[in-house]
Design a protein that fits this description.
The chain has 310 residues and is of the alpha/beta class. Strands 3-2-1-4-5-6-7 form a seven-stranded parallel beta sheet, sandwiched between helices. About 6% of the residues have low confidence. It is elongated, with a radius of gyration of 43 Å.
Length: 310
């Protein structure tokens, strides 16, 4: 509608301009200017009208053509943008779906035994905590078959020196008692390593400063996991085990290493789980979850009751 009114205005304007120029045309001053002008005939008027009308139509056609070209260019740009946006959304949805399927598969396979022969040993990562956590873990290790879980890597917090000393004394006692009889004590000690890891938050540390220490602790834990790539992770509740177990779960999802995480809840937990245990239980990150009290097993049915380990 706007284009039609615009064309009509152009035609009327052109007609008025042509008539005005025709009526006001003057010759140079002289005798010719004083001569009377001949009246225009009907044929001349019709030719002038036809010329004006044809020029107006040509202008209208050019204007319509330019408008169509502009609209086509805008339409092509909009179509390209829409196509790119749809393709990007489809790709994101596809990747998210594949990752979700992989995560669900890993969670479904959790709890099944390792895909290795029973005669082969497995790389074992043992997470030690301060105080009673270390005592319970060393008591648990005394019942394991050491030749099945070798090499062994002991990890404790960077500020916890007592736990690593106790583990070193236990390993040395095992060599002195049993392995010296078969003259393999040196090989046993070579297959054991002791490491330390940064903690996200120390006891008594403010939550504001822990914002800066948490990324450092996660990066350090990632470096340790890439270096060791354990097949079995043994832990019993210290907070240092949480980032290691999360990274091991991500390794499963990505396909770097399929490991088995064995979590033994502390005997001090009688009616409810610790924060580390609760997170690993709810997120299905622990392949084997053991508790030492029967009421805990009833409250958390996916756990296994093994009695007191001391």
């Amino acid at each position: 509608m706007f284009l039609a009114f615009f064309l009509m205005g152009k035609v009327v304007h052109a007609i008025i301009n042509s008539l005005t120029k025709g009526g006001q045309s003057q010759t140079t001053p002289g005798r010719e200017s004083m001569a009377p002008q001949k009246p225009q005939t009907e044929g001349q008027w019709s030719r002038r009208w036809s010329m004006v009308f044809s020029s107006s139509l040509q202008r209208g056609h050019l204007l319509c053509r330019n408008n169509r070209l502009i609209e086509m260019e805008k339409g092509n740009g909009c179509c390209f943008f829409t196509t790119t946006l749809n393709a990007t959304i489809l790709l994101v949805v596809l990747i998210t779906t594949l990752v979700l399927i992989r995560v669900l598969y890993v969670m479904y396979q959790s709890g099944k035994p390792l895909r290795k022969s029973a005669l082969q040993s497995v790389i074992t990562l043992i997470v030690l905590g301060s105080g009673g956590h270390t005592a319970e873990m060393l008591s648990l290790l005394s019942m394991l078959q050491k030749d099945k879980f070798t090499p062994r890597f002991y990890i404790a917090a960077a500020t916890d020196n007592m736990s690593l000393q106790k583990a070193h004394l236990m390993e040395k006692s095992l060599v002195d008692i049993g392995d010296l009889l078969s003259q393999t004590g040196g090989n046993v000690l070579e297959s054991v390593q002791f490491m330390q890891i940064y903690r996200s938050r120390e006891v008594g540390q403010s939550y504001i400063t822990s914002v800066g220490t948490t990324p450092i602790a996660i990066a350090h834990a990632l470096w340790i996991m890439i270096k060791i790539r354990p097949q079995v992770i043994l832990c019993n509740g210290p907070g240092t085990c949480l980032p290691l177990c999360v990274i091991a779960f991500l390794f499963k999802v990505v396909g770097i290493r399929w490991s088995s995480k064995i979590y033994v809840e502390s005997i001090a937990r009688v009616s409810r789980l610790s924060l580390s245990g609760l997170l690993l239980y709810k997120l299905c990150m622990a392949d084997q979850f053991f508790v030492q009290w029967p009421q805990l097993q009833k409250k958390y049915p996916r756990s296994h009751y093994v009695g007191c380990l001391r």
